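Work Package 3 (structural annotation) set out to generate three-dimensional models for the target panel prioritized at the project kickoff. During this period the team completed the workflow that converts sequence records into C-alpha coordinates, so that structures can be stored uniformly alongside our sequence database. As a representative example, we reproduce one entry of 102 residues exactly as it appears in the project archive.
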Amino acid sequence: MTAQSKAPCLLPEAGRSPFQLLWAKYPGGSPGSGARQSGRKARMAKPVTSFTCTSCGAVHKKWAGRCDACGAWNSIVEEAPLSAGPAAKSLGRARGKAIALT
Protein backbone atom coordinates (compact mmCIF):
# COMPACT_ATOMS: atom_id res chain seq x y z
CA MET A 1 0.00 0.00 0.00
CA THR A 2 1.15 3.46 -0.72
CA ALA A 3 1.11 6.12 1.92
CA GLN A 4 -0.85 9.14 0.90
CA SER A 5 0.53 12.44 2.05
CA LYS A 6 -1.82 15.21 2.98
CA ALA A 7 -1.29 18.37 1.01
CA PRO A 8 -1.41 21.53 3.13
CA CYS A 9 -4.61 23.48 2.74
CA LEU A 10 -4.05 26.98 1.40
CA LEU A 11 -7.36 28.43 2.56
CA PRO A 12 -7.05 31.13 5.26
CA GLU A 13 -9.86 29.50 7.26
CA ALA A 14 -8.02 26.20 7.65
CA GLY A 15 -7.25 25.29 11.23
CA ARG A 16 -9.33 28.09 12.77
CA SER A 17 -12.30 27.59 15.03
CA PRO A 18 -15.72 29.02 14.13
CA PHE A 19 -15.31 31.59 16.91
CA GLN A 20 -11.99 32.79 15.51
CA LEU A 21 -13.60 33.13 12.09
CA LEU A 22 -16.50 35.11 13.58
CA TRP A 23 -14.27 37.58 15.43
CA ALA A 24 -12.05 38.00 12.38
CA LYS A 25 -15.12 38.88 10.34
CA TYR A 26 -16.47 41.36 12.92
CA PRO A 27 -13.49 43.17 14.48
CA GLY A 28 -15.66 45.75 16.28
CA GLY A 29 -17.68 43.14 18.12
CA SER A 30 -20.27 40.49 17.53
CA PRO A 31 -22.72 40.59 14.59
CA GLY A 32 -25.45 42.11 16.79
CA SER A 33 -23.31 44.77 18.46
CA GLY A 34 -25.18 47.62 16.77
CA ALA A 35 -23.49 51.00 16.43
CA ARG A 36 -20.01 49.73 17.26
CA GLN A 37 -19.66 48.42 13.71
CA SER A 38 -18.75 50.91 11.06
CA GLY A 39 -21.53 51.77 8.64
CA ARG A 40 -24.38 51.22 11.07
CA LYS A 41 -26.55 53.88 12.64
CA ALA A 42 -27.10 54.04 16.36
CA ARG A 43 -30.55 52.94 17.45
CA MET A 44 -32.82 55.52 19.01
CA ALA A 45 -34.96 54.85 22.04
CA LYS A 46 -38.68 54.47 21.52
CA PRO A 47 -40.87 57.11 23.13
CA VAL A 48 -42.64 55.83 26.22
CA THR A 49 -46.39 56.39 26.17
CA SER A 50 -48.40 56.57 29.34
CA PHE A 51 -52.12 56.43 30.04
CA THR A 52 -53.72 58.72 32.60
CA CYS A 53 -57.09 58.50 34.29
CA THR A 54 -59.13 61.67 33.75
CA SER A 55 -61.01 61.13 37.02
CA CYS A 56 -58.22 60.62 39.53
CA GLY A 57 -54.99 61.28 37.57
CA ALA A 58 -53.50 57.82 38.11
CA VAL A 59 -50.87 56.87 35.53
CA HIS A 60 -50.89 53.43 33.89
CA LYS A 61 -48.44 51.75 31.49
CA LYS A 62 -51.21 50.09 29.46
CA TRP A 63 -54.72 51.13 28.52
CA ALA A 64 -57.54 49.50 30.43
CA GLY A 65 -61.29 50.01 30.32
CA ARG A 66 -61.45 50.64 34.06
CA CYS A 67 -59.03 52.57 36.27
CA ASP A 68 -57.47 50.37 38.96
CA ALA A 69 -57.08 53.29 41.38
CA CYS A 70 -60.58 54.83 41.41
CA GLY A 71 -62.70 52.28 39.52
CA ALA A 72 -64.02 54.74 36.90
CA TRP A 73 -64.97 53.19 33.56
CA ASN A 74 -63.64 54.52 30.22
CA SER A 75 -61.71 57.34 31.86
CA ILE A 76 -58.16 56.39 30.79
CA VAL A 77 -56.66 58.45 27.95
CA GLU A 78 -53.29 58.23 26.22
CA GLU A 79 -50.81 60.98 27.08
CA ALA A 80 -48.39 62.17 24.41
CA PRO A 81 -44.73 61.67 25.41
CA LEU A 82 -42.63 64.73 26.07
CA SER A 83 -40.43 65.60 23.14
CA ALA A 84 -36.93 66.89 23.55
CA GLY A 85 -37.56 69.51 20.87
CA PRO A 86 -34.87 71.07 18.75
CA ALA A 87 -31.38 71.26 20.23
CA ALA A 88 -30.98 74.92 19.37
CA LYS A 89 -33.26 77.62 18.03
CA SER A 90 -33.46 77.37 14.27
CA LEU A 91 -32.47 80.36 12.16
CA GLY A 92 -34.95 79.52 9.41
CA ARG A 93 -34.54 81.78 6.36
CA ALA A 94 -31.70 83.72 8.00
CA ARG A 95 -29.44 80.67 7.88
CA GLY A 96 -26.37 81.43 5.78
CA LYS A 97 -27.25 85.12 5.49
CA ALA A 98 -24.53 87.67 6.17
CA ILE A 99 -24.99 89.71 9.35
CA ALA A 100 -23.93 93.34 9.42
CA LEU A 101 -21.74 94.12 12.43
CA THR A 102 -22.16 97.50 14.11
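The CA atoms of residues 39 and 86 lie 26 Å apart.
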